[in-house]
Amino acid sequence: MKWIRLLAVVCLSWLPGQLLAAVCVQDDAGQAVCVKQPQRILALAPHLTELVDFAGGLGRVVAVDGSSNFPAVVNSLPKMGNPWMLGAESILARKPDLVLVWQSGISMDVVVQLRKAGVPVFVSEPKSIAQVASTMQRFATLLGTAVATQAKVDEWLKQFGTLRTQYAKAKPVGVFYQVWNEPLMTLGGQHVVSEVIALCGGRNVFADLPSLAAQVSVENVLKRDPAVVLASGAVQGHIALVKQWSAWPGLAAVQRGGVYTVPGDILVRNGPRLLEASRQVCAHIDSARR
After folding, report:
1. According to the model, what pLDDT value does residue 87 have?
2. pLDDT digit string (tens) for 199-229?
3. What is the pLDDT of residue 7?
4. CA gap 25, 10 in Å, rounded
5. d(CA 175, CA 281)
6. What predicted TM-score, i.e. pTM, was given to this entire model?
7. Angle at which helices 146-167 and 192-199 cross, to 10°
8. CA dihedral defined by 190, 192, 196, 198, rounded to 10 degrees?
9. pLDDT at residue 79 greater than cutoff 60
10. How far is CA 231 from CA 26, 46, 137, 259, 284, in A?
11. pLDDT, position 14
């Protein structure tokens, strides 16, 4: 996989009697984020909590969003609820020296206010496996754990390479990814889930959508006739999904028994467990293929 070059520079600032180094990286919004060994981090999205843990910084996280639940120790941390409902004041009250936010999950007005208050904010919006790896590296740079983390990142990417090689010559399989049932929603080709489907030898039947997500009709799904219907959900969700699509017995996915679910907290969170999700997706697609 082609590496994404990281922007990492060292800024120097003078304090009486000492010279302190601030390490800077570029976030996904193109802004420089500079910190000096952050000790009070807020992680305001589940994938950010998991990524900062991967980079060895979970011990410095003082609070997380209400949906973060992995690793289990996160549940003992203060939870700040839905980031969309947070104002700058409630975030500043935690006295953070680094705030990690999801661009699609917070008001950018709040981000502006935090930066005006002098708080470094890293805006995250990874849309590919490579960008997830890049975020791992950038977090490690900010935390001062780059050397220890790099080998983990290399191995993580290597495992994705193994999956690509394994399914490189596999017969293509049409896949419909269902985000929601009422209204019926799916993901386009720009979403990382579509990339995961592709590396498994699958083909997102709605890869041509110009947006990340969109509403589609049942008729359109039937017309594209996927051999796999995939959604995020637990056991009960799988039962409901099978029941939903059994109403159209002519659909290839129904005929092949190719209706599957994958836990959403590993597939649609763009974090380290995306590898685990990819293995499950590949196994499901391969079962339908066989």
Report:
1. 94
2. 999 999 999 998 889 999 999 999 999 999 9
3. 46
4. 9
5. 10
6. 0.89
7. 50
8. 10
9. yes
10. 33, 19, 30, 8, 11
11. 38
Intervals of CATH 3.40.50.1980 along the chain: 8-156, 170-289
DSSP 8-state code for residue 171? P
Q: What is the pLDDT of residue 238?
A: 85
In angstroms, rounded to a whole number, what is the distance separating the alpha carbons of residues 199 and 38? 36
Sign of CA dihedral 153, 154, 156, 160: positive
pLDDT at 232: 85
Contacts 24+ apart (CB under 8 A), 151-156: 152/54, 156/272, 156/275
Fold category of 8-156 in CATH: Rossmann fold (3.40.50)
pLDDT at residue 234 in the model:
65
Does residue 144 sit in helix, strand or coil?
coil
How many residues make up the chain in this entry? 290
CATH fold for the domain made of 170-289: Rossmann fold (3.40.50)
